[in-house]
């Protein structure tokens, strides 16, 4: 293959890729509101341990998620700060508190489970919660 021919083929492939490539999947920010928490139902209780094998308390964080994209959002990571009654952080050195598997367009309810060391006093304070995800799944899904 001659050099000019190689340049023409390369240029053609680049042009084709620019005009016929799939739509990029952008990160979508999701606003979380009306946050609250409650003790986990009995079916979630039992067998809870914190990272250091100490007893833990189970709570469900609930609220509403506003997806402005018009598309279903998958695997949305939820970030926030959780403090105990004394203002001490509940989740040391991390702000990711969980994920929401699917967030439909518009406003929808969500809940996620958290484990808190049993020695941290309540009420908990939920602050700076936000979420973000993609319009296609980023986790591999195994189908049987």
Shape type: elongated
Terminal residue distance: 48 Å
Give the strand tally.
Answer: 6
| Series of H and E elements | HEEEEEE
Give a short account of the largest sheet.
6 strands, antiparallel
CATH architectural arrangement: Sandwich
- Discrete helix count: 1
| CA radius of gyration | 22 Å
Arithmetic mean of pLDDT: 80
Q: How helix-rich are the residues, as a percent range?
A: 10-25%
Uncertain parts: none
Output the structural class: mainly beta
Strand composition percent: over 45%
Which oligomeric form is depicted?
single chain
Number of domains: 1
CATH overall fold name? Immunoglobulin-like
Keywords:
144 residues, mainly beta, Immunoglobulin-like, 6-stranded antiparallel sheet, 6 strands, 12% helix, Biotin carboxylase
Structure, described:
- The chain has 144 residues and is mainly β.
- The chain has a single domain, classed as Immunoglobulin-like (Sandwich).
- 12% of the residues lie in helices and 45% in strands.
- The protein contains one helix and six strands, in the order αββββββ.
- Strands 4-3-6-1-2-5 form a six-stranded antiparallel β-sheet, with no helix packed on it.
- It is elongated and about 75 Å long.
- It starts with a helix and ends in a 10-residue tail after the last strand.
- The model has no long low-confidence stretch (mean pLDDT 80).
């Amino acid at each position: 293959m001659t050099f000019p021919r190689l340049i023409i083929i390369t240029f053609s492939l680049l042009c084709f890729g620019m005009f016929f490539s799939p739509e990029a999947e952008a990160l979508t920010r999701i606003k979380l509101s009306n946050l609250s928490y409650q003790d986990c139902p009995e079916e979630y209780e039992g067998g809870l341990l914190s990272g250091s094998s100490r007893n833990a308390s189970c709570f469900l964080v609930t609220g509403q998620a506003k997806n402005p994209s018009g598309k279903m959002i998958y695997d949305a990571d939820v970030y926030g700060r959780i403090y105990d009654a004394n203002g001490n952080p509940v989740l040391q050195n991390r702000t990711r508190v969980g994920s929401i598997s699917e967030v439909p367009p518009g406003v929808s309810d969500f809940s996620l489970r958290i484990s808190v060391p049993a020695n941290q006093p309540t009420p908990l304070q939920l602050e700076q919660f936000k979420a973000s995800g993609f319009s296609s799944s980023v986790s591999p899904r195994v189908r049987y």
